[in-house]
Design brief:
Helix content: 25-40%
Protein name: tRNA-2-methylthio-N(6)-dimethylallyladenosine synthase
Cofactor: [4Fe-4S] cluster
CATH superfamily of the largest domain: tm_1862 like domain
Organism: Bacillus selenitireducens (strain ATCC 700615 / DSM 15326 / MLS10)
Radius of gyration: 24 Å
Subunit structure: Monomer.
Largest sheet: 7 strands, mixed
Bound molecules: 5'-deoxyadenosine, iron/sulfur cluster
Distance between the termini: 55 Å
CATH class of the largest domain: Alpha Beta
Strand content: 15-25%
GO molecular function, one term: 4 iron, 4 sulfur cluster binding
């Protein structure tokens, strides 16, 4: 990468002396760190422009780092969303090219990376618990490299806490400098200091990083990075930076590559995929165009996530309605059913506009399932406002919903608001909401009874290895008995039983399929 083009602020802190490490004395390094670190700042983040994103195709592992991992093993523990899963595949690819082998057994790992999630406080608490557990391992195996990366590393308070309280951590790096992993691992191995490298601003797109895909028939394809929506409760625009779309030709080539390698299903990924292309200043190519081009590629199933209602245009609905390999499942987060709450959340649509959009989708794609995300207990949410959310769930009869209690995220506008809603009230609202959501999921599943549906067989059921599990084109989970040889295949299953969260069914024979 051309250093001149690198506009980001780079921070490398190597200040923990080995003596400090041995003594285990926690020192206050925060002052030093704050001097070189930009915490999330809404005003300056909002000013970020759409220009100046370079695409690089010249990633390579430097020669002196290519064999560093020989005879050593790594383990990456991934928390949070599919974007993190995707990033972990890149990190695994890089480590394999450095000569490391992968392991799932933490006792034999020489490098353990925690790829973290910052979306809610409980996600962070889980990671801090894990960091604490690793202290014991590190004591028994001082050669072990412990790294913390992902969204939490982009937060100043997290980095300070690790610097002060978790000196057994060897390496902290952020979401914008994953491609620097070879150098960072080398430094962590050969230095006795804690290595901290977090770029506070997003940067260029690095196209050709190695990739060790976890799935052999299902693959993630990232189409854009970052988010510019700035919902007032959300940390993502700060941890993931501004919206940057990959070039269409690069996305399409990746999809073609997966098709050539027999992949059955791809998920196009982005924090806000509906904004795809808006930052490509030299082109009017949008998500609808991309999907239309991907329709022509021989891959049986294509889905995308996550959508924001604001950018969900008619062209997009029309392309999905054409069918083919486009899966009939739309995940469309609504967050609240009350217009005042939606407004202070900065969601940029009203309840009525959301309903109109959802109705349009249902009308044009009649078999589509509609799922959503909902937050309860936003600061000062009243019982009446919460009732509006309940009534929206009843009105929309969502096929499924992911529901959350609001969690204050440092640096976001909502976190600065006073909040008069007690925790217990928020928890109670979540429970009441879940009851309604589950009722509708069960009703939606019940409608599937006796239908014969296409299922992509993903593997053994978690609860019972004698049973296989897979998903319909509408993303419903199906359990059924079949030989293990169908794992990774598209089969037909007749639904015999419906539960709130899953369906049971029977494999339909090939002869019966021929008669369908
Ligand atoms: N608190 C609770 N839920 C949140 N989400 C995002 N930020 C927060 C927060 N601060 C939820 C939203 C989003 C989903 C991925 O996580 O519902 O759609
Ligand atoms: Fe967060 Fe999604 Fe809103 Fe972006 S659109 S700020 S990722 S909730």
């Amino acid at each position: 990468m051309n250093e001149e083009q690198r506009k980001y602020q780079e921070i490398t802190v190597e200040q923990t002396s080995s003596a400090d490490k041995k003594s285990g004395q926690a020192k206050d390094y925060s002052q030093y760190f704050q001097a070189t670190y930009q915490p999330p700042d809404l005003k300056s983040a909002k000013k970020r422009g759409k220009e100046d994103v370079f695409v690089h195709y010249d990633f390579e592992i430097p020669e002196d780092m290519a064999n560093i991992g020989r005879g050593k093993k790594f383990l990456i523990r991934t928390y949070g969303c599919q974007m993190n899963e995707h990033d972990s595949e890149n990190m695994a690819g890089i480590l394999l090219e450095m000569g490391f082998e992968s392991t799932v057994n933490q006792d034999e790992a020489d490098v353990i990376l925690l790829n973290t999630c910052a979306i809610r406080e409980n996600a962070e608490n889980k990671v801090f618990g894990e960091i604490g557990n690793l202290k014991v391992m590190k004591r028994e195996n001082p050669g072990l490299i412990v790294g913390v990366c992902g969204c939490m590393s982009q937060e100043e308070s997290v980095v300070n806490r690790i610097l002060q309280k978790h000196q057994h951590v060897d390496l902290i790096f952020g979401t914008h400098n994953i491609h620097r992993l070879p150098e960072l691992i080398k430094n962590a191995i050969f230095s006795k200091e804690m290595i901290v490298e977090v770029w506070s601003q997003e940067g260029d797109i690095i196209e050709n990083m190695p990739r060790a895909r976890k799935g052999q028939f299902q693959g993630w394809v990232n189409i854009m990075y970052g988010c510019d929506k700035f919902c007032t409760y959300c940390i993502v625009p700060f941890t993931r930076g501004k919206e940057r779309s990959r070039r269409p030709e690069d996305v399409i080539e990746e999809v073609r590559h997966l098709a050539r390698n027999g992949y059955k299903e791809i998920t196009l990924l982005g924090q806000n995929v509906n904004a795809y292309g808006k930052d490509l200043l030299d082109s009017s190519y949008r998500l609808a165009d991309l999907l239309d081009d991907i329709r022509d590629i021989g891959i049986p199933r294509v889905r995308f996530t996550t959508s924001h209602p604001w950018d969900f245009d008619d062209e997009l609905i029309d392309v999905i309605a054409k069918g083919g390999n486009m899966m009939e499942h739309i995940h469309l987060p609504v967050q609240s059913g009350n217009n005042d709450v939606l407004k202070i959340m900065n969601r940029k649509y009203t309840r009525e506009e959301y309903v109109a959009l959802a109705d349009k989708i249902k009308e044009k794609i009649p078999h589509a399932t509609l799922t959503t995300d909902i937050i309860v207990g936003y600061p000062n949410e009243t019982e009446e406002q919460f009732q509006d959310t309940l009534s929206l769930v009843k009105e929309m009869a969502f096929d499924a919903a992911y529901t959350y209690v609001y969690s204050a995220r440092e640096g976001t506008p909502a976190a600065a608001m006073e909040d008069d809603v007690p925790k217990e009230v928020k928890k109670d609202r979540l429970q009441r909401l879940n009851e309604v959501v589950n009722r509708h999921s069960a009703m939606s599943n019940e409608r599937m009874r006796d239908r014969t549906v296409e299922v992509l067989v993903e593997g053994e059921s978690k609860k019972n290895p004698d049973v296989l599990m897979g998903r319909t084109r509408t993303n419903k989970l199906v359990n059924f008995k079949a030989p293990k040889s169908v794992i990774g295949e598209l089969v037909y299953v007749k639904i015999t039983d419906a539960k709130s969260w899953s369906l049971n069914g029977e494999l339909v024979s090939e002869a019966e399929v021929a008669q369908l």
